[in-house]
Predict the 3D structure of the following.
Amino acid sequence: MHLLRRLALAAVLIVPGAARAGDVANLDILGFSADGGIFAFEEYGELDGSGDAYSNRFYIDTSTDRFVAGSPIRIRLEDDIGAIANARAQSAAKGERIVPATVLAANPGFLAGFNAITEYSADPTRMSVNPRPVFAPVDPPLEFRLEEFPLIAPVACENLGDIMGFRLTRINATHGGVTTVVHEDGSVPASRRCPNGYRIGGIQTWINDNGAPKFAVLIAVRSMGFEGPDYRWIAVTGSL
């Protein structure tokens, strides 16, 4: 870390009432493979405390909801001018080996719903959308609900608040509101960095003639950072 950043950080820690902020990762939805079989997104930003730049890319098999080979891609660079752009370029280069950027750009899908973590009026536990911009709608509503529940804290997460898992259910509007569990945590993955809470951030859909329609539910994960709450992104995928 450069001397000026160390001095700035020291000022934040010492001065009473100084503004403090955690690390909220930027989200970039990259798109799908040509057949909808892979969903890709990136989170990037600057780490609170160290100021290091980072770029993480995730490529998920939409049929199994598991990472494909070579994913996730994680790049972290020491703070410097242009470091975020450099980190993003490095992660993008590695991602080319999984799904080329031109393919993702040609198959973006549709952002059917999005709630920024700064939005007070949004319901963090529920989102219901029209899967694609066709009016009058030709698809039934796509609805998900999120529930948090406590899990046993790993040793590394002791004294970092209540450690939470989540359950994501889908509400089937065409079958009397029948619910289906699409994801339920049994333990806390180390990659989530001691999660204290979750919120539904968005729903991305992919519907075309090349394969079965797909969805990806973007979920913001809150954890305790060096200077305040940190937010990172995960996704739960499946077929419509």
